[in-house]
Design goal:
Helices cover 49% and strands 0% of the residues. It has 131 residues and is mostly helical. It has a domain of 82 residues.
């Protein structure tokens, strides 16, 4: 969804779509305006659309290919946008994840690690039998 379309959404609808309120969205945009490069080629997406791209990537767990296709940019461009926004917001120290854990003494922290790498399967070659 482009920023032009998202402006039609009410605050509850926008929060449902992106996970943040309009005020937080505009705070992110204002923070990112300080990091806009002055030289070079202008970006294909305006700053609001870049933030929406990044939010949809975080919110929906879609691949960068699908997010990039939705916004009409390449997968590499979508990756650069997401990385740039993440870096700028991390450096600003205004946005962070809550660090308060629920009553941690009663929690049993067991972790399961799963290796999901793809390995080609070696199969025997088919031989044709002569009749």
């Amino acid at each position: 969804m482009k920023s032009i379309d998202s402006k039609k959404l009410s605050d509850p609808q926008f929060k449902r779509y992106t996970g943040i309120s309009w005020s937080t969205f505009y705070l992110i945009v204002e923070q990112l305006k300080m990091h806009v490069p002055t030289k070079g080629r202008p970006p294909n997406l305006n700053l609001e659309d870049q933030v929406l791209l990044c939010l949809s990537y975080w919110r929906e767990y879609r691949t960068l290919f699908h997010v990039a296709t939705s916004y009409g940019v390449s997968e590499l461009t979508a990756s650069r946008i997401a990385r740039h926004i993440e870096d700028c917001l991390t450096q600003s120290k205004l946005f962070n994840l809550p660090k308060d854990l629920s009553e941690g003494e009663d929690i049993d922290w067991n972790v399961v690690i799963m290796d999901a790498t793809e390995i080609p399967i070696q199969r025997p070659k088919k031989t044709e039998e002569k009749l």
